[in-house]
Amino acid sequence: MIELRRLYHFETHRECLSGKTGQNAFFRPQSETHPDMRIPLRLAALSALLISSLAQAADLIPIEVHRDANCGCCKKWITHLEANGFKVEDHVEANMSEFKQQHGVPPRLASCHTGLINGKFVEGHVPADQVLALSKRDDLLGVAAPGMPMGSPGMEMDGMSDAYQVIGLKKDGTDVVVADYPAH
């Protein structure tokens, strides 16, 4: 678009020097666009906007979230994920216990909702940065923030938070602490 503007000003200057236009043609403000350039400039701007929008949509990280219909904190966690670059596919489940069992979430790591990303589970109010880190951990089947820790994403309450850990479930069935979050 900058190149189009430069071309326009060059053409205006050339017309002025050749005497094809009035005396003030060279001194036209930039806001006065030559009528022949209005449509291409608009198309260029629209194209740039469209390409930018498509690039942003392509960069979103897909995740499925399965939750109970009556859980408000689950919706807040979804909002947290979306604000951090995830494209959430929201599913309401009739039986979350059965769903968790089918997807390998041990009862000791259970929380209110379960995310699925790249074949791994994300249980409970796990911060978005830990969801991203999960993709780099081939040794883990999933991660969890067991229970519903106050202050975790989706469980914010007047600036207060409990200390909590994000636990990873290794392929051999053992747990490993992948992140510690202090109380505030």
Approximately how much beta-strand content do the residues carry? 15-25%
| Envelope shape | globular
CATH topology description of the largest domain? Glutaredoxin
- Low-confidence segments, given as residue ranges, are 1-31
Q: Reading side by side through the largest sheet, how are the strands ordered?
A: 2-1-3-4-5-6-7
Give the biggest sheet.
7 strands, mixed
Tell me the total number of β-strands.
7
Order of helices and strands: HHEHEHEEHEEE
Structural class: alpha/beta
Number of domains: 2
Distance between the termini: 49 Å
Based on the coordinates given, report the CATH architecture of the largest domain. Answer: 3-Layer(aba) Sandwich
Query: How many distinct helices?
Result: 5
Cα radius of gyration in angstroms: 27 Å
Account of the protein in words:
With 184 residues, the chain is an alpha/beta fold. It folds into two domains: 2-58, no CATH class; 61-181, Glutaredoxin. The protein is built from five helices and seven strands. It has helices at residues 2-18, 35-59, 72-83, 96-102, 128-134; strands at 61-67, 86-92, 114-117, 120-124, 140-145, 164-170, 175-181. Strands 2-1-3-4-5-6-7 form a seven-stranded mixed beta sheet, with helices on both faces. The two termini are 49 Å apart. The model is unreliable at 1-31 (pLDDT under 50).
